[in-house]
Amino acid sequence: MEKPSTSSRFRFRDHQNLENSPLSNASSEISSASCDPADETELQSMAAKGINHLCSELLELKAESDEDFHRNIFHNYAAFIRVFEEVEGMKKQLTQLKSQVAFQRRLVKDLVNVYLKALSKESIELVVQESVTAEPSTPSEMEAHISNVSETLDIILAENRIDEAITILELERENVQRLQYDGDSPSDVLARYECAISERKAMVMLQLTLVAENPRVSAAELQKTLVQFCRLGDSHLATQLLLKYYHSRIATGIHSIESSKSFSHGVYIRELVKFVFSMISQAARSFVMLYGETSPSASEFIRWACEEIEVFVSNFNKYVKHISELSGGLSTAVQAVQCAMSFCTLLETQKLELRPFFIKQIRPCMEEVLQIHIEHFKNVITIFSATDAWVLGRYLVSGIVNEARSSMVFGQQPEYCLLTNSGRKFITLFQAITAEITHLVSLQMEGSILGGLMDLFEEYVVILERAINSQTNVTDKGGSRINSAESLPQQISILANLSTLEHFFFGSFRGIFRDINQSDSFQQGEFNSCMLFIQEVNDRLRAHFCQQLINRMMSCKAGSEHRPEACIVNVGDHNRLCDVMPSAAFQVLFLELRTVNKLAEENVFELDWLMELLREVVQTLFLWISNNKEMWALTEEDLTRQNSDVYDQKLFVLDIHFLVEIARNGGYFSDNPAILATLKNSAFLSAGLDPKRYVDDEEWATNAATKAIQKLIEIQETKSLLQDELIGTCEEEQHESQNKRASDSSRDDGRISSADEVSIDESEAAVNTQTITLYADSSSVDCFAREGFEEEKWASS
């Protein structure tokens, strides 16, 4: 390639020219610069010119080089393209050559396989021909046949051709059996023949066993090996190897799951269930592929599956006991059981009935778990009952009962229900518990479920019973303190609360067990006994309430120190029967029942339910009078006496008629008035009085009882007005006192002296004293009858 003339001009310089150039002159003069300071400026300008000239020459060289490079690329582009095309062609030829080599290799391999198959077929056919058609007639021929078969099997086993070896062994085994049946062959030769076949069979089985027991063997390879075992006639060993293989996989899998740190508690147990039952299912499929739907070894497989379920249950028990928190342990265990039961259902499609055995194994563990959580829930009930003030509240049914069970639990009842604070919490807790444990019905744990729920219900009822005992700050067995229901409205609120819970329990149990009431596993009698238990617990608490009320009333009869503060009027003069009032105890009863009736009018209680309760109170009181007849009984000698004995007799008659009038006015026996007459006659008879002899006193006693009721009502209303006026007066005086202090404070610029504070304290003390006096005047209305009765009693004595 011809180079331009300009390139030589820049690339090759004469040294002479360089010496004559300004750059050489500059370099020569630099040496003298140090000795001639005057020429320093001239030297610097000459060096700058030399550098500029050098840079311009370098730029020209770069431009010339770029031009040469592009010119070379342009002239040699066609050669580059031709080389690239040749490389692509060489690649294609190389790929074709590789394909041809692979094809030739495949042909060679196929040829070798065909040859081996032909050789094997020829050997097998030769052995078969010798075994079937050629019947050795002499021992020497049999010896030759044994030697030939043994040699052929040795060759095949050496080449690891197990299927061919099994085919030959099958044929030779049939030949040995035929010869044994014929009995023409010598026994020693036949024994050697049989021994040779048995030895080769043992060699085959040894190789198959090594394959089956290899930890890395796949399921497909194992299945093929087990089929070969069955061809050799050893199905029992095949079954043992199959079960051993899946047992090893289950053990390894369980260990792997336990060692894994990535699983939480709930995920761990569900993964464990899924893995164990999946392995059992895979083993069942392999067993069916090996033996078919029916097999004499099926019982052995079922036994193995049950053993694996025992292993799972053992791990499940350890897991449940390991869970320390009680908040989610029951839910997690129930979910795991549900998962296991669903797998048992899937296994039934493979004709594996493992559900009964699984239920039998897992039920004791779940019963223990359930009992632990029931005890925990008892403590929870005690905790939230400790703060209950025993005041009824009206709650929307849809707000406290699950929407799916609302109609089932309360049916066509009103949309509101009456509950105390602890009752509402108890229903919420009960629903949360039943939502979890109802799934345990599939484990045939109906008895344990009902028993646990009954324990919770009874635990709450015991708390209610202790609250009704009217003991201040009742201490529960767990050390918690329970607020006592000291007033009658509080105690009736407890009974109304329990009545709502009873109704809720009946409906809930019907909903829980509605699908299994007719099943064989569920005993209807046990369910009915639980319903009866709830009713008996409710009746027991109502009876306890009635007895407590009567005991409190009768304490008023024992002495004035036990009487409650109420509007009680003295019983009157002995000699003036027209002024006789009922006993203080029955006056207290009337006033308290009147208070309760007012609450019913204000819709605090349901009227029908309250009427039933008060009717039960009156019946219990009459029954108590009849059972304690020694307090009222009058002998014939007493009946002949005058004065005090006649007075006591009249007072007793008046008390009975007073109770009758209370019941009539309240409408407690409006449905069946005959019951009230029967109760009255029983009370007379218990006191030794003949009801027919006192017919003349009927009108007097009825009028006296009616007047007593009117008088008590008037006194109660008067007391109520006095209390209202007292409260109003106290509020006005407090307001005036506040205004006075405010004016005094503003007059003294916000300062109050110690003397002013004393006067204010004195005025407040005077107001308080006046308030106490007013209350004392009001209480005197309650107590003057009691004092008058005591004075009359003292005078008569």
From TrEMBL:
Keyword annotations from UniProtKB, A to Z: Exocytosis, Transport
Biological processes annotated in GO: exocytosis; Golgi to plasma membrane transport; intracellular protein localization
Pfam families tied to this protein: Exo84_C, VPS51_Exo84_N
Domain Exocyst component Exo84 C-terminal stretches: 146-327
Region annotation (Disordered) ranges: 1-36, 731-764
Compositionally biased intervals (Basic and acidic residues): 735-751
SUPFAM superfamilies registered for this protein in UniProt: Cullin repeat-like
Stretches with biased composition (Low complexity): 20-34
UniProt keyword Hydrolase present: no
A GO term from the CC aspect: exocyst
Protein family: Belongs to the EXO84 family.
Protein name, per record: Exocyst component Exo84 C-terminal domain-containing protein
Organism: Citrus clementina (Clementine)
Biological classification of the source: Eukaryota, Viridiplantae, Streptophyta, Embryophyta, Tracheophyta
